[in-house]
Amino acid sequence: MTRSNELLQGTLDLLILKVLTTGPRHGLAIADRVRQLSDDVLRVNQSALYPALHRLEHQAWITAEWGESENNRRARFYSLTKAGRARLKTEEQSWDRLSAAVHGVLKAV
């Protein structure tokens, strides 16, 4: 993420898991989709993206396999696992609680 758009720790993982619900994507396609869905507000740097992908793969929340990208380059395509779908559901619930709490503070003060 760019410095001005840094997110809470773990939020990038949530965004990656959510983007992968629509099917396998390679790393740059994941970053592009986050940017598109956020109306160009969130930009995921490669220096943050690839460690997050490796961490999620290590947790068995995603899997990766080699394939060919749309520009005929070899790329790793990441897919959500069953455990990843369960984790996403948990993380979405946590995010909803956190964002409601922050919203409550912002509106109360």
From TrEMBL:
A Pfam family this chain is assigned to: PadR
InterPro entries linked to this entry: Metal_resp_DNA-bind_regulator, Tscrpt_reg_PadR_acidobac-type, Tscrpt_reg_PadR_N, WH-like_DNA-bd_sf, WH_DNA-bd_sf
Gene3D superfamilies: Winged helix-like DNA-binding domain superfamily/Winged helix DNA-binding domain
Domain Transcription regulator PadR N-terminal: 16-89
Domain of life, per lineage: Bacteria
Identification of the protein by name: Transcriptional regulator
Taxonomic source organism: Granulicella aggregans
